[in-house]
Write a structure and sequence with these properties.
By secondary structure, the protein is mainly α. The chain folds into two domains: 30 residues; 77 residues. The longest helix is centred in the C-terminal third of the chain and has 76 residues.
Length: 117
């Protein structure tokens, strides 16, 4: 019986191929549209420049929004981590005090035993 081993494709590799396909397909479609457009070359160039400018502006806005969201989320995560760290510190201090009290009680009991001996 043959033993087949399948290696899962990495998500990054798949996304890279998908993005490459989308970009190449988009370029081919844009070039075809441009070549068969019913406008003059100058009108096509101006239209292409306008669309490129709009795309640049939308991309810039999207990047700014994404960066803003990431910063906001990072700030909230930072606050959560600080809160949890404070809670853990408090718990650790309480446990330490409890252990020191037990040690002090044990020491007193040992002192008492030595005096009685």
């Amino acid at each position: 019986m043959k033993n087949y081993e399948f290696e899962p494709m990495e998500a990054a590799n798949t996304a890279k191929h998908l993005l490459t396909g989308v970009l190449v397909g988009g370029l081919i479609g844009a070039t075809t549209m441009w070549l068969f457009a019913p406008h003059s070359g100058e009108e096509n160039r101006n239209d292409l420049l306008d669309r490129a400018s709009e795309l640049r502006d939308r991309t810039t806005e999207t990047v700014k929004d994404t960066v803003s969201q990431v910063k906001s989320r990072a700030g909230s995560l930072r606050g959560e981590v600080k809160g949890k760290a404070g809670d853990l510190k408090s718990i650790g201090q309480d446990l330490l005090v409890e252990q020191l009290d037990r040690a002090a009680e044990a020491l007193e009991a040992a002192k008492k035993a030595v005096k009685e001996y």
